[in-house]
Design goal:
Length: 737
């Protein structure tokens, strides 16, 4: 009998498989058409065109308070529940703002998971957990959605202390597989009756290196777990920013998983090849052992996930409950301890045309009109600090071809989308990979480029060792630009930029600066561009500029034609400035009795944008007490400190108050350390108080409310002045406060 060669067999199998369409194989549905038609056809709603509206009643959702209420629903009822849940999310977020489209894309998945698995005994981890709004509604928090991301309300992310159904808290990405593996191993060691741990990883979170570290280890340990890859084409925010890699998602993995879908029906070919092999003589049956490998090689170029030790299932339409539910049931009931990766293709913003059609898919939204999708965004006459940074960087890049920009999947949040439109070939989006971003920048600096590595303060925590080992130790001129420094408002504790001054201030060779206003921000961008003697850090908060009127009246700027300068100037490194003398911006030159004695003189040394609140407080104090004299200075730099400025302030004043938007261990501690070493505290005639963010986490609220809780608004600075100047008796903060 003639034995077919492996190559001949595979060629024959491939040719025969090409004669079949995806619809020839039951259970394989990668198109979104059927699910979308189901959504569009649901009763009592209009999503065919504006005005959009949801169902008048939600009878099935009304019957579901907890996941246990879903167990007896059939597929038809689960579809209707999904439709009602989608509009419940839309209605809630339209009133509060928040992360919209990610949740819309996982409605069917959330329904299927809670129908099949038994939380809280089973663990479901959402990564990034801004996909969790449908999950919150189905786990007893529907009546609390009106307080989503509000002061005293529920978080926009999963939080263990908020609900027993939130298996793991997360605001940063790529953590779910590690956590699920830990839970799986723990359940096994503790001999728990059930061991179902599901990590839902999506919105680009799979691009984070930690996810691969976990998968590598999970395959090695054969940990029983299910990883659901929610593949919605989203990597960066927004996807489609012009960069050196084009406008496609900033991830080769995204292209890889897309090719699994479009190159050939992957699962169909494997099933077909296995069935075809049964027709061959026994002496070629050994080929069956490698059929999966051959199929992967021909169809998709190899399955990365299976090489890491996972059993791969997919790709599957993540909006098709008729396939999704039975697949999850089979995975739940499997006796295998091998980890599984279920690959779902979903549509971010599914079921709401304004989200599906928006360039950012309405990822993060303000309150909006449900009928049209139009957001209610307040009009500001001043530009955002992020846009000011980006446009100043464009100025620097126009003058110097060595200037390049780097972002870790946040081009919109860091201004790299603006920079990328002007300099696409000099804009680099590395995906959710902060460690790589920092060392990537270090490599660029080695070759003479001037990299601006633009990362949220909270996300740079993930690249700390790279800052120390790859940048600072080698004294490479990498420019670290930290947006969202200080508290950030409604995203809550996982996104505050509270700690960068403390964790970066300990590192030698760093120059650390913070602008007090938009003019200073422009100046510091140009300063970073001009400084080549080592790494620099520029931190600034979420917010907008103050505008010309306030800059002149409160800050004392003399603006030509009453216009804010559009060009920045290079600042001398380590040099602060005095903004306000006693008596006001211009001072009163001692013409009255204000501050005649040293005990009546107070200095405020501000670092960052709390300068505004410091100036307001100084004006209020002097209006209240004609004998008090308040000087306000802007430090500008934490490293190096302007020691001459500090000495001047302590020589002339009996009280020194430092103010910053950072935690304990930051700017104020550096000033205190210097004063102690300089002997300024030895004689006991100087009172020093650092005003910092207290040692606690700030839950969701507005930025103003969070600074109010922190005690860093003008009334708190005013109270500190009056207490230290012995004008009022105010109880000292207790250890518990």
């Amino acid at each position: 009998m003639r034995v077919l060669s492996t190559a001949t067999f595979l060629l024959l199998a491939s040719e025969l498989a090409s004669a079949f369409t995806p619809s020839s194989f039951p259970g394989h549905n990668v198109a979104r058409t059927s699910a979308r038609k189901t959504t569009l056809a649901a009763e009592g709603s209009n999503v065919s065109g504006p005005p959009y509206s949801g169902p008048a009643t939600k009878p099935i959702l009304d019957s579901v308070k907890y996941p246990s209420d879903m167990k007896n629903l059939d597929i038809r009822e689960l579809k209707q529940l999904s439709h009602e849940l989608r509009w419940e999310v839309l209605e809630a977020v339209s009133k509060t703002g928040g992360h919209l489209s990610s949740s819309l894309g996982v409605i069917e998945l959330t329904v299927a998971l809670h129908h099949v698995f038994d939380m809280p005994e089973d663990d479901i981890i959402w990564d990034v957990s801004h996909q969790c709004y449908p999950h919150k509604i189905l786990t007893g928090r529907r009546d609390r959605m009106s307080g989503l991301r509000q002061l005293g309300g529920i978080s926009g992310f999963c939080k263990r202390k908020e609900s027993k159904y939130d298996s793991f808290g997360a605001g940063h990405s790529s953590t779910s597989i590690s956590a699920a593996q830990g839970m799986s191993v723990a359940k096994s060691l503790l001999n728990k009756r059930k061991n179902n741990c599901i990590a839902v990883i999506g919105d680009g979170a799979i691009t984070g290196g930690m996810a691969y570290e976990a998968m590598n280890n999970a395959g090695y340990l054969r940990s029983r777990m299910i990883v659901v890859l929610n593949d919605n084409g989203q990597v960066s925010l927004p996807t489609g920013t012009q960069t050196a890699g084009g406008v496609v998602p900033a991830s080769q993995l995204s292209a890889y998983t897309s090719n699994l879908l479009v190159s050939k029906p992957f699962q169909d070919f494997r099933d077909f090849a296995k069935n075809l092999n049964r027709l061959f003589p026994e002496n070629v049956q050994d080929i069956n052992k490698r059929l999966d490998e051959y199929a992967r090689g021909i169809v998709s170029g190899g399955t990365l996930f299976e090489e890491l030790g996972f059993y791969y299932v997919g790709p599957v339409d993540g909006h098709d409950l008729e396939n999704l539910v039975p697949i999850l049931e089979k995975l739940r009931d499997s006796e295998s301890t091998k980890p599984v990766l279920l690959h779902l293709k979903t549509n971010k913003g599914q079921g709401y045309p304004p989200a599906e059609e928006a360039s950012d898919k309405m990822h993060g939204v303000a309150k909006f009109d449900l009928a049209t999708g139009v957001q209610y965004k307040g009009k500001s006459t001043a530009p955002s600090l992020t846009s000011i940074f980006a446009n100043t960087l464009i100025d620097a890049a126009t003058e110097d071809r060595a200037v390049v920009g780097i972002t870790a999947a946040m081009p919109g949040g860091t201004g790299m989308d603006i920079f990328g439109r002007r300099f696409p070939k000099r804009t680099f989006d590395v995906g959710i990979a902060e460690q790589h971003a920092v060392t990537f920048a270090a490599g660029m600096a080695c070759e003479g480029l001037k990299p601006f590595c633009c990362i949220y303060s909270t996300f740079l925590q993930r690249g700390y060792d790279q800052v120390v080992h790859d940048v600072a130790t080698q004294n490479l001129p990498v420019r670290l630009i930290l947006d969202r420094a200080g508290v950030v408002g409604n995203d809550g504790p996982t996104h505050h930029g509270c700690y960068d001054l403390a964790y970066l201030g300990t590192i030698p060779n760093l120059t650390i600066m913070a602008p007090s206003d938009e003019i200073e921000l422009r100046n510091m961008v140009m300063t970073c561009a001009a400084y080549d003697d080592g790494p620099t850090v520029l931190r600034y908060p979420r917010g907008t500029g103050y505008g010309a009127e306030k800059l002149q009246n409160l800050f004392g700027y003399e603006l030509e034609n009453d216009e804010v300068p559009t060009k920045g100037e290079v600042l001398p490194i380590g040099q602060g400035r005095i903004i306000r003398r006693p008596g006001g911006i211009n001072g009163d030159s001692g013409k009255n009795r204000r501050g005649r004695e040293r005990k009546d003189r107070v200095a405020i040394l501000s670092f960052g944008t709390r300068l505004h609140e410091s100036l307001v407080a100084a004006n209020e104090v002097e209006e209240m007490d004609p004998t008090l004299a308040v000087t306000v200075a802007d430090a500008r730099f934490m490293k190096p400190l302007d020691v001459d400025l500090i000495r001047e302030l302590v020589d002339e004043n009996s009280v020194l108050i430092t103010v910053e938007e950072g935690s304990i261990g930051g700017f104020g501690d550096h000033v205190l350390h210097f004063l102690a070493l300089d002997g300024a505290l030895d004689e006991g005639n100087l009172k020093v108080r650092p005003m910092v963010l207290p040692d606690k986490y700030f839950e969701t609220a507005t930025q103003y409310e969070q600074y109010e809780q922190a005690g860093l608004n003008s009334e708190h600075i005013r109270g500190t002045i009056l207490r230290l100047a012995q004008r009022v008796k105010v109880p000292a903060l207790s250890e518990q406060d």
